[in-house]
Design goal:
The complex is a heterodimer of chains A (250) and B (368).
Chain A lengths: L7 E12 L2 E12 L3 E5 L6 H8 L7 E6 L2 E2 L4 H10 E4 L11 H11 L5 H14 L15 H13 L5 E5 L7 H16 L3 E5 L3 H7 L2 E6 L2 E6 L1 H6 L4 H12 L1
Parallel strand pairs in A: 3-8, 3-9, 6-7, 7-8
Antiparallel strand pairs in A: 1-2, 1-4, 4-5, 9-10
Helix pairs in contact in A: 3-4, 3-5, 4-5, 5-6
Chain B lengths: L1 H11 L9 H8 L4 H27 L19 H12 L7 H15 L10 H21 L15 H27 L4 H15 L3 H15 L8 H26 L3 H9 L4 H16 L1 H14 L9 E2 H8 L9 H33 L3
Helix pairs in contact in B: 4-7, 4-14, 5-6, 7-8, 7-10, 7-13, 7-14, 8-10, 9-10, 10-12, 10-13, 11-12, 13-15, 14-15
The chains are: A alpha/beta (250), B mainly alpha (368).
Bound molecules: adenosine-5'-triphosphate (ATP) and magnesium ion (MG).
Adenosine-5'-triphosphate binds next to β2 and α1 of chain A.
Chain lengths: 250, 368
Amino acid sequence: MTGGSAEPIIIMRDVHKWFGEFHVLKGINLEVGKSQKVVVCGPSGSGKSTMIRCINRLEEHQRGEIVVDGIELTSDVKNVEAIRREVGMVFQSFNLFPHLTVIENLILAPMWVRRVPRKEAEELAMSLLERVKIPEQAHKYPGQLSGGQQQRVAIARALCMKPKIMLFDEPTSALDPEMVKEVLDVMIELANEGMTMVVVTHEMGFAKSVADFVVFMDEGEIVEVAPPSVFFTNPKSDRTKLFLSQILQH
Amino acid sequence: MAVRQQTAAARVQPPITERVTVLAWLKHNLFSTWYNSLLTILVGYLLYLVLVPFFRWAVLDATIAGDSKAACSFGGACWTLVKVRLGQYVYGLYPEDQRWRVNLALVIAALAMVPLFLERFRHRLTYAVGLVVIYPIVGYALFYGGWMGLPVVETSRWGGLFLTLVIAGVGITASLPLGILLALGRRSEMPVIRSLCVAFIELVRGVPLVTILFMASVMLPLFLPAGVNFDKLMRALVGVALFSAAYMAEVIRGGLQAIPKGQYEAAMALGLGYWQMTGLVILPQALRMVIPGIVNTFIGLFKDTSLVTIIGLFDLLGMAKLIVTDPQWLGLAAESYIFAAFGFWIFCFAMSRYSQHVERRLSAGERR
Ligand SMILES: Nc1ncnc2c1ncn2[C@@H]1O[C@H](COP(=O)(O)OP(=O)(O)OP(=O)(O)O)[C@@H](O)[C@H]1O
Ligand SMILES: [Mg+2]
């Protein structure tokens, strides 16, 4: 299942995962090409988070194959670390490090994982903070920022590692409505710059304007994959129709 | 988080006006209602009953002049004893003409610690680790001697406050890193490491320190091959360090458990390895949270050092006891023990104040 002709950078083949007895992912097949933007949606508990967390091994899959940027995810720590260096992740709850200032949050991984000298890391961090439009907050602590600002710092922190792929797990669902836009704007800009993105979100406006294709999941399976134009106007499966009718109501 | 609530509360409290008069303060705090007034008077009377005689004994009727018990004839405390024997309270039986070595080591320690208090010094942690490794060697070389013409002073002659500080210092500096490792081990995903750590912690925590000291001093030699003779002080140090490490581990584990899962995930997603994640993200937050518990363990450890008397070492308390068995000074136990208690109190109080200072500084910078 793929939504384009670009060279694939994420490949998931028949991926299965169980939490104990509970079968969360039931044979996921997905290919994402370089520079593609994928929006994943589906009802709560359908396994969206679990799926994208498998891409950088925050969750371990038990069957099937995941290849990211040409590296297969196995239990080999080397491979896992190599993939994590190339994949940035943004969480629903920001997960900034509260004991470090904004700029320290940003330079931590470049300095310790990529061994970039402090000065260089700080320059990169400042340029990224400018990109997410909060350079003036560099020396504050995360707890002193609003939710929208924190999420933008989190995006900048992930970008500091110069990842090839960015994963977003409901980046706007913990935000007050008036802050959603500032975060989405940053994400749209990132998309326009050609970043490969996998985004779990229910922001259908975002899906319509940037997604190359939308993935609909239900009960651990991918039910439908289609470009937004088709997905929103002419969904094939009944489950998709039901979901869309529920989500578009409000 | 408790820290957040505190700072939030501090912000909403009205500013303290400086013009509150003493009378107004008294009325507001001590005599606001009839039962409050009654309590104030009652407590005041009890304090009067206890403190006045004590004050009379310890200060008004006390003697500090002279250099023998004969000088004390006013019925009050005989601080002459403390004055005359001060050297022994502080240095134990360390030879008088060599005491400068202890002083020198103390001065070196004080100077070496200065950079730790410089906020601007970036590499404080590295420096502290280096200090913890190097200083004990310097200290031991000075105290024990046996090189460059320094006469050897056997550890059996070390004593008094000096010995208390040696044991507490070693115990404190060893128990923190050991405790951290044990706490991490207890949460490890590797079953062997986890069970070893759990077994160690539960075993050591389950027995009194006295037992551990006894075992270290009496039983350990039975297991060692003949001829291998561990120094008695060394054995006490190992016992104290392991004992407090077990307590420390549980305090630190409490902090580790309070760190949300998201922090681990964010660190992993950035590509940090286990030790980087632990050292840069998890521990700084976890340790901060449990500073009061850590200091509490330190203070407990400091006082527990007095238990080494039972294996024949003379720390501050041991010296206090030894000194009053001298026939010249018989009957002056109260003075001797009060002085020792005062010595312990000074250090414990200082630790407590320092920890409050650290907490305030940390919570001023960061707000969640
Ligand atoms: N660590 C875990 N242990 C056991 N079950 C889990 C665990 N994490 C998730 N689950 C279960 O797996 C299922 C899928 O969870 P997942 O978080 O992937 O759903 P989701 O599609 O992201 O839902 P939401 O929209 O609510 O975030 C849920 O039923 C959840 O209860
Ligand atoms: Mg989710």
